[in-house]
Design a protein that fits this description.
Layout lengths: L19 H8 L5 E3 L2 H5 L17 H6 L12 E3 L6 H17 L3 H13 L6 H13 L3 H14 L4 H14 L3 H13 L6 H14 L2 H13 L6 H13 L3 H11 L9 H12 L3 H13 L6 H13 L3 H13 L6 H13 L6 H4 L15 H7 L3 H12 L7 H12 L10
Helix pairs in contact: 4-5, 4-6, 6-7, 6-8, 8-9, 8-10, 10-11, 10-12, 12-13, 13-14, 14-15, 14-16, 16-17, 16-18, 18-21
Length: about 425
């Protein structure tokens, strides 16, 4: 008689045969098990002997706590006892045991449970199927992945797109780009269209784990399918270009997406300005800034700080002050990056005595804050005053300080041997 491990949707016999070593493990936790032959159950020999009053619900959390070391070596088929009307708890236990078997390498036992699920009226949750697919994909068992997809298409085609989206995301987070490609091909072969969420996840993970060339191929596929690239994917691609110091390609990319898009705010314009600021192409930077304003976009703090960093590094004092006045006119509150641009520009040219005048248009007693887009620091880095301020606030354990305090401390340290007066 063939005996395989499986969990059945039938209630157990009133008098159950218990395996000593197996049942003793679980009775402490109130987890009761019945060991019954598979063939007898399939032939319905015991169905008429069911006493529903004697059945009760098992604890699904116990299955979650099992690991490979204490996983029971089951040599007999067993069934879980279930109270009528509480199918949800039973299904949770069933799904948990399925994933636990698969994740610990008991593939034949997991397949037996999976087959029972398919033959029952129970429709597994999309997240459970996605996790099962991820487990098989992680061991390169793509035949089983394809089989599961086909089986779910027959079982419940409505949840198939959700399963595909979750599986793509799961493979992507692990950096398994080949598995992600296979999932996309499976989707297309079964007639499922790649939606915006799946397409953006696909591009996002290629940006994080693939080469720039692979990322551009993935971007080309999405562009041909007319899927709109969302902000998270745009940032991921931009970071990949920045990491590879491909600033020209960064500028071409954001222009290809379309600078007129309003749903991502000033992100695309700021990235374009950043691509010019990285190589200090000041004329192009100024020209694109004017185009941005003419197109109806209002510069934000990141926009102004990109320009201020470029002006500061190039010692363009007049342009820096014009930018500060423009910022004041637009009611944009400066942050630590803005103050750092002014301080570093003047001290680099040994103009510390003029610093009080330079900062007269900025409020000295505001609390310190940093609101600039972090992508700016990936390109331009952080100035000396910015780095000093972060270290000072961390060392003194002050979550909030004023620019007045930081500037005074910075000048005392930098010019300790010189008689430089800083009067506020």
């Amino acid at each position: 008689m063939e005996v395989l491990p499986a969990i059945y949707a039938f209630p157990p016999l009133k008098k159950t045969f218990k395996w000593k070593n197996f049942s003793s493990i679980f009775h402490k936790n109130g987890f009761r098990l019945s060991i019954l032959p598979r063939k007898s159950f399939l032939h319905g020999k015991y169905r008429s002997c069911v006493d529903w009053d004697d059945a009760y619900v098992e604890d699904a959390s116990l299955v979650h706590n099992l690991n490979r070391k204490n996983f029971p070596q089951i040599t007999e088929n067993f069934s879980l006892e279930v109270k009528p009307g509480d199918v949800r708890s039973y299904n949770s236990t069933l799904s948990s045991l399925l994933l636990r078997y698969a994740s610990n390498g008991f593939y034949s036992k997991a397949k037996a449970i999976w087959d029972e699920i398919l033959n029952s009226s129970f429709v597994p949750d999309a997240s459970v199927v996605s996790k099962l697919i991820t487990i098989y994909g992680s061991v390169d068992n793509f035949d089983m992945v394809s089989q599961i997809m086909r089986q779910m298409q027959l079982k419940d085609p409505d949840i198939l797109p959700n399963i595909c989206a979750l599986s793509i995301s799961s493979f992507g987070k692990r950096g398994q780009l080949e598995c992600m490609d296979i999932m996309v091909k499976e989707m297309v072969s079964m007639g499922c269209s790649v939606d915006s969420a799946s397409g953006n996840s696909y591009l996002l993970y290629y940006s994080l784990f693939g080469s720039v060339a692979e990322m551009e191929v993935a971007y080309g596929r999405l562009k041909r399918s007319r899927i709109l690239i969302e902000e998270e994917a745009i940032r991921a691609m931009s970071f990949a270009y920045i990491k590879g110091k491909k600033f020209y390609a960064l500028g071409q990319f954001v222009q290809d997406i379309g600078l007129g898009r309003r749903n991502v705010g000033n992100l695309l314009w700021n990235l374009l300005l950043l691509s010019y600021a990285a190589n200090f192409k000041m004329k192009s930077l100024q020209r694109e800034f004017v185009k941005m304003v003419e197109a109806g976009f209002t510069p934000d703090l990141t926009t102004f700080n990109i320009r201020a960093l470029a002006f500061s590094r190039m010692s363009l004092f007049w342009d820096l002050h014009v930018s500060l006045e423009h910022m004041k006119h637009e009611s944009v509150v400066p942050d630590l990056v803005t103050y750092g641009c002014v301080v570093d520009a003047y001290l680099d040219k040994r103009l510390g005595r003029n610093l009080e005048f330079a900062l007269s248009s900025l409020s000295k007693h505001n609390s310190v804050s940093v609101s600039t887009d972090p992508l700016v620091f990936e390109v331009m880095g952080k100035g000396d005053f910015h780095l000093f301020s972060e270290m000072t606030l961390e060392y003194t354990r002050k979550k909030k300080g004023t620019y007045n305090m930081l500037i005074t401390t910075y000048l005392k340290k930098k010019f300790r041997s010189n008689q430089i007066f800083w009067n506020y």
